[in-house]
Amino acid sequence: MLKTYLKQAWELLKQNKLFSSLYIVGTGLSIAMTMVIAIVYYVRIAPVYPETNREYTLVVKTAQMTKEKNMQAAMLSYAMLKEWMYTLKSAELVTGVYSPWGNNSSYIQQSETEEEVPVQVKYTDENFFGVFPLTFLDGKPFTEADRRSSIRNAVLTDSYARQLFGTTQGVVGKVISLNYTDVKIVGIVRGGSYLTPDSYAQLYLPYSCMDGYDKKGRLWGIGAYRAYILSKGKDGIADVKTEVDELVRKYNAAGGDDNWKIDLVGQPETYWRNTFRTFQNQNIDWTKVIGTFAGIAFVLLFVPALNLSGMISARMERRLPEMGVRKAFGANRGLLLKQVLWENLVLSGLGALLGLVVAWIALVISGHNTFSLFESYPSGVPEGADASLGMDMLFAPAVFVVAVLFCLLLNVLSALIPAWQSLRRPITASLNEQK
User: What is the domain range of residue 105?
Assistant: First the structure.
């Protein structure tokens, strides 16, 4: 029976080329826009290289300190990272990333050409390569001893190594000049994309190489660090949150630092939840988030469904005599309805394929520009940074699932109501309908 439906659908497609083309293009454009949004948010929250541990990673990016009517908020202090985060017994690994304020532009000085090449540097610790498992192509990461001793051992990405040396072979052990200071390369990793900014860099160095990395601020909890906590599986997420909450409670109960109270504003929180924060020192406005997605669903699903249902309704009017004949020979309403849905599913499927191709082309051409449309405060890609889309981003199974579900839903919404209304007519009315 299914084979018969598909064959009939194909014949109708060839007989009504204009209708079929308009239906496929309309469906394709709707699905293309949906897939663009699906891929953007997939890249933001799903486990993509090198942030493959997102499902088990919690983040703490902001500390807020209050005293009476005074309030200050910024990233975490080195003291909090060292005394709280690194000591978490419920965590598998904890890494800290140092992001000092001000102009942090960095350059590699090439002695052969006397050229300065811009470089994206991430100042972190040895645990970074465990929380964000970058693949080492050569060498190894810098060690805890390197960090404690402020030794300038660096890890380069393969793409940046090729930019500097034309190859990734034989690079480990070389010394380069970073901001007129010698740095030794100890490892080469397969680089990620700027679309995963928490892990992206072209060069990784121990944060202890930076002057003032352990400087104590005016307030104990305020500084320039972000903490990423790898939990012991899904079950360990609650344990980490409980342990951190207890540290906050004890600190505040003891009077804090000169009666300043600390608040981590709902953190540590899972990676996907943190994605929806507009401001790190404010809780997530879920009403706004849900409203945004509801608006997107209305524009991309219900509006196209209404337009397509109008087209189907007009076609059903022309097919009433055919349906009347089939009813006269014993076909019931359910059988005819099933046939109409399968016919339109074929068209929706072709539209879905067209939509996927259009979405992929649009994302590859536009790159980071499309991703920045969905950011509250978009920023450009730094000079020389790689913002390409990996294969695991474009061809993710979850994206195909979204395409299939959207295709089915669009088919049901656009075809079911007009087909049901047309098939409710009596046989005599259908037979007497003029073509």
Answer: 101-209
